[in-house]
Prior knowledge:
By secondary structure, the chain is an all-alpha fold. 75% of the residues lie in helices and 2% in strands.
Amino acid sequence: MPCRMALQRRIRDAAESLEEVRLSSDKRLSATGLAMLLVPAIWFVKTDFELYAHDWPKLRQRLLLRLILVIVPSVGILAMRRVKSRASYSNAVFWIAIAIAAVTIGLNSIRPTGSGLPLRSPVLILCIMYFAMPDTPLRQCVAPIALSLGLIGLRMTTLSGGGVDVPGDVIAIASLNALGMLTIRRRVRLDAATSAVAGELRTLRDIIPICSHCRKLRSEVGDWQQIERYFHERGEALFSHGICPDCLQEHYEDQFRESATTR
């Protein structure tokens, strides 16, 4: 029983270590994606001054939204350093993505009516949401789909000018979403396969071949070892030797009688 408990503890520790590695990797990837969002958020401030230099109220609105678009990823990067569990990571990524999507739609909605809708920054944001902010499939899709619908709506209504190909932009956004969903689906299938293999390994590790006559155990390399040696080499248990009452009676009858008389 102590050996089995030790084995189960090692399996549980291995599963926890795997989840820690996954969470750490997802946190680093999300932090990198959020850092990349800071570049267009800061770079296009100069475009705002060029477009709205003579319209202070609208320039003020855009600068405020730009500031939020800098603050949200910055807070997200700090949050990635602090979250310790999968649940807290998922909540942080979800609400950060929602906030970024809302600010991006707001920035484009206050552009002059009849102007074109540049897709450089929004497409980068969509790519980061799909490929650099991993989460559960449903939660990860909410923000990019909402952002895509908002961009398509603006492109087909108030921001359809500038001589751009509106149907082409709509197709590009839709295609990017399809690719993102396929990537999420692939990641989910890989995670499921990994979990299945880990479950099979746990099952196999619980099955230890033992000789029905001498009770030796077969190791991973195929040689047969005494039970004491098998578990001692794996650091799973230490053995002390004694003798059970049945063996005492069978092999040491005199001592067994003395023991029985003493009791």
